[in-house]
Amino acid sequence: MISYFLKAVKENYNVKKRSITEYSRIHKNFMDFCIDAYTISEIGNLSTVKMSGLFGMMKMETVILTPLYKDAPLFSYDLIQVMGKDTLLLELYDTQIKAVDCKELEKVKGKYQKLPDHDLGTHWYDHLKLSASLSKRGKKMVSVYENLCRDYFQAYLKLLVDCDFCDQKKKQALVKSYVDGLLNQGGPSTDQFKKMIGENATRELFSKYIFASE
User: Fold this and answer.
1) How many other CB atoms are there within 10 angstroms of residue 75's CB atom?
2) Are strands 74-82 and 31-40 parallel, antiparallel or unpaired?
3) Residue 29 confidence (pLDDT)
4) Phi, psi of 163, rounded to the nearest 5 degrees
5) Is 70 helix (H, G, I), strand (E, B) or coil?
6) Comparing C-alpha atoms, which of 49, 37, 47, 43 is closest to residue 12?
7) Alpha carbon distance 29, 32 (integer Å)
8) 1, 105, 127, 150: which one has the fewest Cβ atoms less than 10 Å from its Cβ?
9) Of 90, 198, 213, 73, whose CA–CA distance to 150 is shortest?
10) How far lies 104's CA from each of 69, 92, 100, 108, 162, in Å?
11) What are the tens digits of pLDDT across the range 46-81?
């Protein structure tokens, strides 16, 4: 799905790949990560992560779109495949100066409500997660999830168009607050990177490239 997200963004905006030096490839603890980051004109930052591990039995891909010039929520996509089980996370985080109407994304969520949900438990950042976010899990669900992702992301792209431009410094401060929370209070992906490359490197990777919060 990473190629789909990139193609969809490129149809609407100028996209420029960023150099992320030593973080473009990380191999440790039998896991291999390929990481890319992009600047999106008039919007902000987009990052992608592809991971494989456990001798190919575990795969994960992530896309994070961080609006810095438009007052839209932060978009996060994860697809995790482990031993026949497929987990999909489509999440929107409140990094907005003013709240926006996510009714079209709510409609997409409702369209796929019969797909089995996945309980993520409780986390410190739950209060920032907007109600249009969803988490699903099932067996051999990738093709179904692809349709859901396309519908969801098209609705998000429309939201980006409709959102107002905003003060970049105010917007980036809100993004930084969320990222600092991940770094200081933890999160599944954040904790994993800390174990692999250390706290300082994780802070640089997340702040400069994954979220562009600094």
Assistant:
1) 24
2) unpaired
3) 79
4) -70, 150
5) strand
6) 43
7) 8
8) 127
9) 90
10) 21, 13, 11, 7, 12
11) 999 999 987 778 999 999 999 999 999 999 999 999
